[in-house]
């Protein structure tokens, strides 16, 4: 062979990093490389089947009559395992692109997750879509012999020892598809018995014949087309693990078929873990689209709403045209209808699960709740169902227990038109804050939301089953009077104090009002009804947006001892009373998250203390 024929290439930096981890870490489940290579062969055959059905021009397909099957052979003496398929194969450019680079964004997060996940690292690799490289866990060297399905493709051999780069050269006499020869470090995976066990686990879910050393292993049925009664839990689990490149159990399994309005067979799983929690960035859609067992699109964008991208599985509909292209998928009414049917079914399924096993649903919600929230914001058509699936603590729940909006509505008095909520860092903080006590004193339930995005989510939601969602830190909430202990200020005194405060606080606040909602707090800063709340303001500030001036309304509690004393002090030492009033206000603004300058509040406190000591 002349040197000119051999093309040497460096791996892209990200690939080198991945290979470095794969080669030098001691993952326990190395055997998954077989699943990953079978999965790739199966993908290539699926794509070939679609090509055969859609590319009708004669002579375009290389070796058009090759069987669509996967052949695996082992050689203990040579220490090799070989996986061949007659799928679409690869051209030179495709070899470089597919086996030398990673197009994914979020590779860095992936690498972190790999490093951290230790034993599970091998799973992460398949789920991130870099399964091919898992062969280097066991390989000294990997050879890929290939010819593309395109008639004018080259006969090629790709080779690498996983250390920095790879080479490509011409290798005459290839059949259509790929033949991958893994030269093993030790002979474990060259033993026919060992390999057979592994293939049996996954190959039943491959839609093409899988042969080991010439012997057929699988029975090849599309699991999603089988009647439910004939499928075991083990089958579901195996199928989930195969298509999801996963090692865990599916959290929820939804399998159904329908004839109208569309013919649908769907098998959909909620995975055990939410991979995005590890900072991996948005994952591609995980439910593949089939038309009568022919894979149309592995990651169909626009079939299901984006917030369902965590689902894994298969949707098969005979009503779809085979040659539907990626572009036309997005705006096909049929695809939209299909997506809507599945989405509704899935939401129903979640509702049912939540009812039947609340503890398991809670687990689900803690991992996947962010997708539910995302859905509330982005899919108005499913908003109410999604809102019903939210879980949170409230002033009526104990300890760690969670509740739902439906339960809130059930508990509330019939004439209560609102659902009150507060968003903050923790339940404890919200319970101690100035806004909760007014509701508590009146026996009104307050829902506690503790995710920063909840503010936004609830604002978008606005109402649930006809009840308005109202943040308990807003001004303008009408509450009934409650009897309070002790003497307060008279109406006249209150009026005078409010007037004086309005003058002496200047433009620190929008205005001062006397109110009935406070119990144990002297004053509270309330948000004007239409102003963006504290979290929203923080978010807008983070995004560099200009903040609208939102001055608080200061509510004073005329029954509070401090306020009563303030009124007396105003008459005897109005200077000191002014300092005290300003400090009370600053504290309240700070507590409500409305003050930009905690340092100024602290220095005001010093001034006040000084004045008090001088008296
Ligand atoms: P993924 O399968 O998630 O895309 P992999 O690392 O497993 O990631 O494979 C990378 C790419 O290499 C595949 O997307 C495919 O384009 C190509 N490839 C791998 N194996 C084969 C094969 N047997 N036939 C054709 N193409 C293949
Ligand atoms: Mg793969």
Strand content: 15-25%
Largest sheet: 9 strands, mixed
Give a count of the beta strands, DSSP E runs of length 2 or more. 22
Low-confidence stretches: none
Report the helical percentage.
25-40%
Structural class, from secondary structure content?
A: alpha+beta
CATH topology term of the largest domain? Heat Shock Protein 90
Rg computed from alpha carbons, rounded to a whole number of angstroms: 33 Å
Termini Cα gap = 101 Å
Instruction: Please list the strands of the largest sheet in the order they lie side by side.
Output: 1-6-5-4-7-3-2-8-9
Mean pLDDT score: 89
Fourth-level CATH superfamily of the largest domain? Histidine kinase-like ATPase, C-terminal domain
- The number of helical elements comes to 20
Shape: elongated
Q: What is the CATH C level class of the largest domain, in words?
A: Alpha Beta
Going by CATH, the architecture of the largest domain would be 2-Layer Sandwich
How would you portray this structure in words?
This protein has 615 residues and is of the alpha+beta class. It folds into 4 domains: 214 residues, Histidine kinase-like ATPase, C-terminal domain (Heat Shock Protein 90, 2-Layer Sandwich); 138 residues, Ribosomal Protein S5, domain 2 (2-Layer Sandwich), CATH 3.30.230.80; 80 residues, Rossmann fold, CATH 3.40.50; 102 residues, Four Helix Bundle (Hemerythrin (Met), subunit A), CATH 1.20.120. The protein has 20 helices and 22 strands. The protein has a 9-stranded mixed sheet, covered by helices on one side. A hairpin with a 5-residue loop joins strand 10 and strand 11. The termini are far apart. The relative contact order is 0.07. Bound molecules: adenosine-5'-diphosphate and magnesium ion.
């Amino acid at each position: 062979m002349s040197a000119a024929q051999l093309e040497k290439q460096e791996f892209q930096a990200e690939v080198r990093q991945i290979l470095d981890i794969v080669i030098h870490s001691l993952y326990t489940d190395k055997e998954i490389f077989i699943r990953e290579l079978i999965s790739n062969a199966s993908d290539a055959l699926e794509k070939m089947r679609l090509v055969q059905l859609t590319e009708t021009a004669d002579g375009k397909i290389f070796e058009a009559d090759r069987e669509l099957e996967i052949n695996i052979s082992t050689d203990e003496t040579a220490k090799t395992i070989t996986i061949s398929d007659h799928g679409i194969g690869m051209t030179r450019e495709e070899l470089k692109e597919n086996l030398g680079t990673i197009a994914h964004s979020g590779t860095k997060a992936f690498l972190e997750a790999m490093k951290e996940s230790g034993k599970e690292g091998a799973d992460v690799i398949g789920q991130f879509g870099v399964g091919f490289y898992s062969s280097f866990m066991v390989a000294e060297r990997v050879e890929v012999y290939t010819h593309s399905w395109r008639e004018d493709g080259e006969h090629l051999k790709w080779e690498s020892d996983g250390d920095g780069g790879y080479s490509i050269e011409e290798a005459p006499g290839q059949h259509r598809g790929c033949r991958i020869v893994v030269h093993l470090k030790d002979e474990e995976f060259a033993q026919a018995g060992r390999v057979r066990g592994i293939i049996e686990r996954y190959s039943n879910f491959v839609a093409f014949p899988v042969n080991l050393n010439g012997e057929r292993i699988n029975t090849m049925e599309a699991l999603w087309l089988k009647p439910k009664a004939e499928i075991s839990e083990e089958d579901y689990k195996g199928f989930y693990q195969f298509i999801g490149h996963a090692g865990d159990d599916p959290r929820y399994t939804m399998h159904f078929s329908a004839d109208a309005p569309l013919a649908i067979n769907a098998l959909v799983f909620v995975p055990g873990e939410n991979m995005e929690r590890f900072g991996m960035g948005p994952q591609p859609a995980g439910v593949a689209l089939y038309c009568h067992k022919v894979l149309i699109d592995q990651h169909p964008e626009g079939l299901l709403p984006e917030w369902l991208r965590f689902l894994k599985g298969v949707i098969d509909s005979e009503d779809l045209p085979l040659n539907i292209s990626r572009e036309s998928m997005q705006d096909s009414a049929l695809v939209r209808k299909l997506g809507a049917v599945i989405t509704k079914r899935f939401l129903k399924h979640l509702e049912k699960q939540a009812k039947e096993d609340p503890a398991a649903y809670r687990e689900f919600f803690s991992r996947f709740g962010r997708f539910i929230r995302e859905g509330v914001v982005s899919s108005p058509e499913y908003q109410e169902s999604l809102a019903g699936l939210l879980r949170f603590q409230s002033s009526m729940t104990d300890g760690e227990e969670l509740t739902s909006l439906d339960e809130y509505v059930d508990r509330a008095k019939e004439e209560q038109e609102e659902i009150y909520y507060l968003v903050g860092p923790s339940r404890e903080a919200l319970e101690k804050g100035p806004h909760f006590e007014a509701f508590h004193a009146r026996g009104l339930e307050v829902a506690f939301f503790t995710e920063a995005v909840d503010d936004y989510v609830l604002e978008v939601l606005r109402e649930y089953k006809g009840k308005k969602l109202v943040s308990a830190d807003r001004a303008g909430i009408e509450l009934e009077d409650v009897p309070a202990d002790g003497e307060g200020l008279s109406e006249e005194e209150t009026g005078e104090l409010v007037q004086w405060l309005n003058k002496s606080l200047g433009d620190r606040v929008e205005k001062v009002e006397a109110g009935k909602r406070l119990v144990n707090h002297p004053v509270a800063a309330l948000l004007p009804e239409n102003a963006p709340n504290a979290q929203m303001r923080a978010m807008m500030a983070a995004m560099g947006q200009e903040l609208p001036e939102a001055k608080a309304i200061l509510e004073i509690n005329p029954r509070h001892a401090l306020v009563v004393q303030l009124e007396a002090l105003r008459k005897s030492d109005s200077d000191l009373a002014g300092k005290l009033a300003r400090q009370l206000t600053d504290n309240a603004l700070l507590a409500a998250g409305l003050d930009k300058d905690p340092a100024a509040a602290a220095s005001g406190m010093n001034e006040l203390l000084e004045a008090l000591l001088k008296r």
